[in-house]
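Standup notes
- DV: blocked on the single-chain target, sequence here:
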Amino acid sequence: MNNIIVLGAGMVGSTMAIDMAKKHFVTITDFNEKALEKAIKKCDKLIPEVLDVTNKLLLQETIKPFDLVICAVPGFLGFKTLKTIIEAKKNVIDISFFPENAFELDKLAKENKVTAIVDCGVAPGMGNVILGYYNEKLKLTDFECLVGGLPKQKKWPFCYKAPFSPVDVIEEYTRPARYVENGIVVTRDALTDCEYIEFDRVGTLESFNSDGLRSIIQTMPHILNMKEKTLRYPGHVEYIKVLKSSGFFNQEKISVNNIDISPIEFTSKILFDEWKLGENEEEITVMRITLKGENSEGKTEKVIYNLFDEYCPDTKVSSMSRTTGYTATAAANLFLDGIFSEKGIFPPELVGKHEECYKYFMNYLKARNVNYIKTSSIH
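- DV (later): unblocked, structure below
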């Protein structure tokens, strides 16, 4: 059994800690004592520890005795936290999804002989694993990822609930979306190119541009067409556009009754209760990965992976926590089992390219009833 430390005791962080505790000794940390109390109520094997990850020396001292760090801190803390972990020469699995480029830490990771697997959730994450695997099998020309986490019960007006902070969701709605068209990186506003798409067991959803390609723009430059779009219930985008166009997402502070506040802070506070996913509230994760390329016989092959996952009433774990967290714990166990041990920064596509790693991810998730259903056709 290995000693594992999980940084962050939110919904996904605690899910990962509980999953890792099946085979390892696990310490879970957070700045918020209530979050820690909630986590250990679910699993008394966990060792809780209050920790402020922004205290660099304290963080490095805390992680010193551990075999692996799993980082689930908020995105705005992610890059600095990852850098601190690498400087401490600790191997790490990261799902903080920070906006900075993780490859800036590649040289540091190699120098410190650290394996750092980043962006290891559902998307980015499993979509990248699948892409990495098929990039070895086909001469790929097209990659598309459609993904969204949704409440089972639609509540007007937004018909949306999030297992994480509204600030992170708003960030997704405001950051320009990059995709690749005919080999050229194109930047569009988020929330654009909205279209309706049918999904089994869900019905019609709307998809829109979001900046989800991340590392694969850099690692897969030979693929001519690549895009990721976010999925929501129909009507959601229109309401978000109204808020965005009206200035509710602006960062610049305004004065209200002699109190300075930024519109985005105010909006996040209002939306927190509106969008907060209840403790045992049922929700679903929907994802469709489509790949197209030339196979070894020179024919065009189209491969589609569909995921439909829902809240698990037995374990009381949300679908987004399951699909995100178990991908990261698969990567953690993959590393601990010695199947992947290369040094440097590795987004999931550079791990999934190895057939043994790809199969490990798929089998690990299947054992937890997270099932990616594949269909393919040859033209």
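- Follow-up: The longest helix spans residues 319-336.
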